[in-house]
Write a structure and sequence with these properties.
Alpha-Beta Plaits, 6-stranded antiparallel β-sheet, 2 domains, two-stranded parallel ribbon, elongated
């Protein structure tokens, strides 16, 4: 069976992305909201953002380029005095697809390709022009290979 590939305008990978993790114990201690505000004020591009509510705690994961790591560390210094600490995890991998004419079709295709390749994303996010998949850095090559089974540039 031949699988028809979906045309996309571009693919970009980053093997040196960084994850910032913030856990809020209580809505009155909005660490994630404060971090997001600081990133925005300093024009730090967020590649992907995901949040999970589990066991009455709000977990937020911010992903950004390694080039912004020093600034993010500076912005999170002292943040833990009023909020839970922000943990920095590096490296993580980013795969960005530049399509968005048929976003649901593209999302379904990337999820199918990743599942068949046994790649488990840390997060998937979408903007007006980009679908971004965040993975462990050691899975980035497999993620790109999986994407290329479903997409053509």
């Amino acid at each position: 069976m031949t699988i028809e590939k979906i045309k996309v305008r571009g693919v970009k990978t980053d093997a040196n992305a960084v994850q910032a993790y913030c856990q809020d114990m209580d809505a009155s201690i909005p660490g994630a909201r404060l971090l997001l505000k600081r990133l925005n004020q300093n024009r730090i591009n967020i590649l992907s953002l995901s949040s999970v509510l589990a066991e009455s705690r709000f977990h937020s994961y911010f992903y950004f380029s390694h080039k912004d790591l020093a600034k993010v560390r500076e912005l999170t210094d002292g943040l833990h005095e009023t909020t839970p600490p922000v943990k920095i995890i590096e490296p993580v991998g980013a795969l960005c697809l530049f399509p968005h004419e048929h976003s649901l079709k593209i999302l379904g295709a990337i999820l199918l390709a990743l599942g068949q390749a046994a790649v488990f994303p840390l997060s998937i996010s979408s903007s007006l022009s980009t679908l971004t998949v965040m993975v462990r850095a050691d899975e980035l090559d497999r993620t790109l290979e999986a994407a290329l089974t479903r997409f053509v540039i």
